[in-house]
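Encode chain A's predicted structure.
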Amino acid sequence: MTDRNPTPAHRAHRHHWRRDVVELAAMFCAVAVADAIANLVVHGPRGPVLLVASAVALLVTAAFHTWWARRHSHAPPPGSTAPTGPEPSPPKGSGATAATTAAATTAPVSSTTLWRMRTTVRDEPGSLAVLCTALARNGADILTLQTHPLPEGGTVDEFLLRAPQELPSAELTRAISRAGGHSTWIERADAHDLVDTPTRVLGLATRTALDAAELPLALRQLLGRCTIHSIPATTLSGRPNAGADAPVEGVLEATVMRLRDPSGGAITVERPYLPFTPTEFARARALVELDARLGPRVPRSQDVLTLPEGNEITVRRADGSDQAAALAMHDRCSERTLSLRYHGPVHDADRYLGHLLSPRFGRTLAATTASGKLVALGHLLWDGDETEVALLIEDDWQRRGIGSELLRRLLAMAVEAGCDSVYAVTQASNTGMVAAMRGLGLPLDYQIEEGTLVITARLDAAPAGSRLPYELPRVLPQEFPHEQPAPRHRR
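Encoded structure for chain A:
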């Protein structure tokens, strides 16, 4: 609202009188000029020619004025899209600037890249606004934001960004550094990171509640790229294991956290490239406490499959309750079969069963006959950042497709768990295991050293059509009919 000073009445009257005199004088001048031109056109020697020339001059002047106005106007260039409505103005106090608006309107939307970025800033008012302004000036759109307070002061801010594809990560890091951020870490993200944190944590808690074997995978998905080791309370010889005495409340040491395993021992999580925050430590400890309250559990779903000769077998998840049946199967297996599986002294094979059947170290599938006898075991074992698969088939049930069926299901679990590859350790003479791995149709890498063969199946490099389905056929095909059964040596 504009303030106006009041004008005295006599000044306003004098002003109106002068204006009337000027308008009257201008009117008389216009009449005089019009009369002179009319007399010149009517009584002059070249009146009509002068009239036509005046009209042409007026037309040329009008055309020149139109051309000049279009060339030097402030209208948008041809081909630009006019706005369909009024542009909303940024709210007061939001920290938005003209540079933010310009970056938002000029940033390309068709070629962008998702980034996950962390940086540490001072815990003071305005520090986050400075970071957001620096990102906006580079055309980066903030999709999600998490803050992790630090006990010694300061805050770790975690962003999920959508930035122009041509913008390098180093430029984003430099912009954050100039805005006051330090210890900045950045990596590529994907569409799975678009899920908000509460939804992701609830999903991981649900998976952990349904299956005890999901705890290491849930911790890895919660904390990003990290290495998780489960340390048993005792060694195979029965001695206490070093590093397995984590306190109940856990221990956080920068890039390492140690949590008490509910099944005994400890869980060690390492992330050398990025220190853990107290917020992440609290989330991980909450998942472990949930697992401890629920106790041992394994999904009890099972599938009944028909072998080519007509026999039926049941494939299900196995756990510690199957240890007695697994020991009985060991007694029925030949020494050669056990040595191909365990690559060591056969008399030590039984000691591994407690470790193998524990859901903390992986997942185990069991194949049982119609009478309930256990005839095959398939293991998917978490080995730090890697994943191992292993099979043990009773001699009388080999070469019937059971091993290949278990292997397909184990790799389907590995795909579901987000593993990039799995490896199998066997001997070069174990043609059955080699054939089963080749039958998967996945890219394989072979490494032979002193008679030991390591076969790695690369799940991330497999074509889309070769990914293993979760719904598998109910009838097993007769696999590798050209191979003869291996010699059977009863114990």
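The CA atoms of residues 37 and 43 lie 10 Å apart.
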